[in-house]
C-alpha cells in the first residue's frame, strides 16, 4: 500500500493553477512503435514465468516548434491483453478460456518539466468488456542524444467486469476446477514501479527495454487463481521512432 500511496500523492501534486490552462495546439507528434518479447507471469497472478510477444506503442510525445509540449494533453490510449487458455497452467485446469482483449480509450496527461502525470480510461472488447485505466507519474531523463531513461509509478484499476474475467471463479468453473466460487469487485487491482530505457541506433530505429515490478491488490490479490501477488516482468524490443509534423 505504500506504493499506492506514493502514486496517489504524486498524481495529486499537479499544480492547481494548471487546471485553468487550455489544451494548447501542437505541430508535431512522435512515438515509438515496434515489436519485442516480454518475460513475466504466465497469466495475471501466476507464479511461473513465460515469454510472450510485446507489441510496442509507447512514449507518445506532443510538441510545439520541436519542443515537448508542457501542460495538459489528450491523446488516444490503446492496449492489448493476450489470450488465457486453461492449459496455460495446471492451476487453470477447469477454468474457461479467455480470448485476446483489445482496449480503446483516452489518456489525459500533464507535463511539467521532466515529470508527466497521467490518467488513462479505456473500454475493453473481445476477451473482456470492462472499463479499465491507470493513474501514474513518470520521470524522463535524457542521458545524451541517444540514451533516454524513464522511471515511473502507477496504479491500475478496473470495474468488476474486468476483475471477474481475470480473477473470478464462476459456479461452473468451481465445479470443474476445484477452486471456490469467487466474485471480485472493482477498484485498484495492481500497483507497479517501472524503469524504461531507449537507445537510438540511428535517427529512426532504437532498442527499448523495460523492467516492471507489479503487486496485486485487494480483491484481485485474494483470488484463488493467484499464486503470487508479486508480478515482475522484463521486456526488450526493437522500435521505430516515428515523428509526424503538421
TrEMBL record:
Keywords: Cell outer membrane, Membrane, Signal. The keyword Calcium does not apply. Its main location: membrane. InterPro entries: MipA (IPR010583). This is Outer membrane protein. Pfam families: MipA (PF06629). Residues 1-20 form the signal peptide. One of its GO terms (cellular component) is cell outer membrane. Belongs to the MipA/OmpV family. The keyword Nucleotidyltransferase does not apply. It is found in: Cell outer membrane.
Amino acid at each position: 500500500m505504500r506504493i499506492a500511496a506514493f502514486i496517489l500523492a504524486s498524481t495529486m501534486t499537479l499544480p492547481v493553477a494548471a487546471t485553468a490552462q487550455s489544451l494548447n495546439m501542437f505541430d508535431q507528434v512522435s512515438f515509438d512503435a515496434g515489436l519485442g518479447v516480454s518475460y513475466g507471469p504466465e497469466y495475471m497472478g501466476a507464479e511461473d514465468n513465460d515469454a510472450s510477444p510485446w507489441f510496442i506503442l509507447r512514449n507518445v510525445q506532443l510538441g510545439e516548434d520541436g519542443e515537448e509540449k508542457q501542460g495538459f494533453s489528450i491523446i488516444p490510449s490503446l492496449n492489448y491483453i493476450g489470450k488465457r487458455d486453461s492449459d496455460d497452467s495446471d492451476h487453470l485446469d477447469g477454468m474457461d478460456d479467455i480470448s485476446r482483449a483489445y482496449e480503446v480509450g483516452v489518456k489525459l496527461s500533464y507535463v511539467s518539466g521532466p515529470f508527466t502525470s497521467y490518467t488513462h480510461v479505456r473500454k475493453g472488447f473481445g476477451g473482456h468488456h470492462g472499463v479499465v485505466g491507470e493513474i501514474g507519474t513518470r520521470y524522463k531523463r535524457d542521458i545524451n542524444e541517444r540514451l533516454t531513461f524513464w522511471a515511473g509509478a502507477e496504479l491500475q484499476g478496473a470495474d468488476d467486469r474486468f476483475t471477474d474475467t481475470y480473477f473470478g471463479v464462476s459456479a461452473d468453473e468451481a465445479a470443474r476446477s476445484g477452486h471456490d466460487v469467487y466474485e471480485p469487485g472493482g477498484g485498484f487491482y495492481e500497483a507497479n514501479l517501472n524503469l524504461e530505457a531507449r537507445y537510438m541506433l540511428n535517427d529512426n530505429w532504437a532498442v527499448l527495454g523495460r523492467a516492471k515490478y507489479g503487486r496485486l491488490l485487494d480483491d484481485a490479490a485474494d483470488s484463488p487463481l493467484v499464486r503470487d501477488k508479486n508480478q515482475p516482468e522484463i521486456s526488450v524490443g526493437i522500435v521505430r521512432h516515428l515523428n509526424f509534423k503538421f
